[in-house]
Amino acid sequence: MSIRTNILMRVYLAFGLILLFAGAVVVQLCRVQFVQGSKWKAMSKAMSTEYMNVEAARGNIFANDGSLLATSVPEYELHMDMLAGGIEKDDIFNEKVDSLAAALSHFFGDKSTREYLHMLREARKDGDRYQLIRRRVTYQELKAVRKFPIFNMGKYKGGLIAVEQNKRILPFRDLAARTIGYKNYNSVDANGNSRPVAVGLEGAYADYINGENGKRLMQRIAGGSWMPVNNGEEEIAPKQGADIISTIDVNLQDVAQAALKKEMMISQADYGCVALMEVSTGEIRAIANFTRTKDGDYAERLNYALGYATEPGSTFKLATYMTLFEQHKIDTSSTIDCEGGRSHVLPGNSRYTVTDVEDNHVISARRAFEESSNVAAAKFVYNAFHDDPSDFTDALYSYHLNDKLDLDIPGEGSPLIKTPKSKSWSKLTLPQMAYGYEERLTPLQMLTFYNAVANDGKMIAPIFVKEIRRLNNTVERFNARVINPKICSDRTLKIMRSLLEGVVQEGTGKNVIKNDLYTVAGKTGTAQIANGSGGYGTVKKHQASFCGYFPADHPKYSMIVVVSNPQGEYLAAKIAGPVFRAIADRVYSSDLEMNQSVPLRYVGNTGLPQTKRGNHKAVQEVFSKLNIKPLYASTTAAVDTTSGLAFEDVKYQKGTVPDVTGMGLSDALYILGNAGYKVVARGSGTVIKQSVTGGSTIPKGAKLTIELQ
């Protein structure tokens, strides 16, 4: 055989082997891809790991006095690793599983011992590494479960896996629930697109409250479930959200809700709302909204005070008369013929008739306002502005009644103030606007206008939040935004305040709201409302409202009450008036700055209130404000013991852990935070236990757990 032939044979052989190997590779690839593809895909999924978000605990929402309105509490989901290190051997598992099943059954009471035993044995048989035991377990329950047989073998040996979750609770339940709101969620619009929805303070301040999510390494197991790799611990700890300090006063909120609901039950109205605002600051102290439910009860469903714009009725006459006086069209002694409380107003138009409740004839502008004469308001405005109605509407726009308040809570209703350029403007519009029709305002928008009169003409937007705090340090502070520094001249302002007081002293509010303890200024409003698509129709529906402020001589609070479609009696003075009076009475009696007619006296044998450990200056300040002075009477002498109060500062050596037992949550967080430690709080009330005892030395930045009860 020649050398050339020999070389060619070797080349052909090598090339053939390469082709054969390449073919085998292709065949194997096809086999893996198409024949065994599902098998390997399932294995990949089963063995995959992924970092998943751990939701941060949302920040708290506090009331104006520090009461907790909304908070996040830890809640746990319990799972069990059936192949944990301590129970790898069957004899250990079989020896204790009966006792574990009995303990679970007795403790939770949701299944019998036999059912728990069957579940645990089946999970053991299947080699389940993440068997669900129980959802929604509290921290106190978790502490008890950790002492059960098998689980008491330790964190890793016993197989118990506790996955922490956060549950949002409202300590006062339905108190201001709609204003507090709830976390943003995704809703689907008419086009099928997902959109964020923000409700109440929870939604408006979500960027602050939500905090920063952590990360937890999770592994996919059989059945598509995910289990934590490190027994529930986070690889990156979540950062708790900031706290919101709202303007709501829990006591006044409770009073407002009770008074409104009582009237709603009596009148069987469709819905109603109340808003109480502090005059000088614009801070909303109480806001209540009730909707009639199918079973005849009332619950908070919609925030009518903020989001529902309707025709206000006679409460709008404040703007009407303010414009007339400001432009010198009339004065308080100007008279008008009300024609017996029934007038056509427009010359030559007999179809349009304005009516009054009273049979009024010739009356003054002052009396017309106090008696809420629709005829007088319509005729005054028509006579003054029919040649150029824009003079009237321009004045309303100068009050910013056509502008939204731009509130911090989303969902504000849009106001409507017509002008002669509006498509729906007609000859009837001008006189009807005079007594509160053909325009729309929300209750809060109307309250803001009345509050401006009480606030010496300065119109400010209502606010619901005062501060944002993180770790008890102020991050941001909020003040009311000035909408209009002066809505009218001092002369007009003085007249309007006098007229508003006259409504209560001599007018429509006299029999219900007038009292001997404090003065009230305000205006009743009874409006007929449209009955759905049927318009005003033959079946009449009404809205009763009262808006005003008190004490009239030095206003501190303004308030609006609106009750829609009461059954039977519908006049504002008899429906909205009692609600206003009941709330104002309670506010006046509880506010020491307003109610100083009776000197405060403290009698003997009274004990001092209990106080928690903390800042003694704060305690002394509270005692000083309350004027606490216990006296122990004697037949021979009176012994003053007020100097016997003993206070002690919380002291700790720098670099050591402070002792915070006996403190409230705020003080404990403040002390430990300033000392440089991260704090996890469990429970509520007073600190009874801390994970690291006071005086111990641990690095700054370490995590401490405190338990409160």
Which sheet architecture does the biggest sheet show? 7 strands, mixed
Assembly annotation: single chain
CATH architecture of the largest domain: 3-Layer(aba) Sandwich
CATH superfamily of the largest domain: DD-peptidase/beta-lactamase superfamily
Shape: elongated
Q: How many domains make up the coordinates?
A: 4
Number of strands: 31
**Strand fraction:** 15-25%
User: Briefly, what CATH class of the largest domain?
Assistant: Alpha Beta
CATH third-level topology of the largest domain: Beta-lactamase
Q: Could you please describe the fold and organization of this structure?
A:
The protein is of the alpha+beta class. α3 runs antiparallel to α4 and α11 (317-326) packs parallel to α13 (374-385). The longest helix has 33 residues, at 3-35. β27 (631-632) and β28 (639-640) form a beta hairpin.
Keywords:
PASTA_dom, 20 helices, 32% helix, PCN-bd_Tpept, 4 domains, protease, 31 strands, Penicillin-binding protein 2a (Domain 2), seven-stranded mixed beta sheet, Beta-lactamase, 709 residues, membrane
Overview in brief:
The chain is an alpha+beta fold. It is built from 20 helices and 31 strands.
Per-chain topology:
Blueprint: H1 3-35, H2 37-47, E1 49-54, E2 61-62, E3 68-80, H3 90-108, H4 113-126, E4 131-137, H5 139-145, E5 160-169, H6 177-180, E6 182-188, E7 194-199, H7 200-204, H8 206-209, E8 214-220, E9 226-228, E10 243-246, H9 250-267, E11 271-278, E12 284-292, E13 298-299, H10 304-307, H11 317-326, E14 335-337, E15 342-343, E16 354-355, E17 362-364, H12 365-370, H13 374-385, H14 390-398, E18 416-417, H15 429-434, E19 439-440, H16 443-454, E20 459-460, E21 465-470, E22 473-477, E23 482-484, H17 490-505, E24 521-529, E25 541-550, E26 557-564, H18 572-590, H19 616-626, E27 631-632, E28 639-640, H20 665-674, E29 678-683, E30 687-690, E31 703-708
Parallel strand pairs: 2-10, 29-31
Antiparallel strand pairs: 1-8, 2-3, 3-4, 3-5, 6-7, 8-9, 10-21, 11-12, 11-26, 12-13, 14-17, 15-16, 18-19, 20-23, 21-22, 24-25, 25-26, 27-28, 30-31
Helix pairs in contact: 3-4, 9-18, 11-13, 11-17
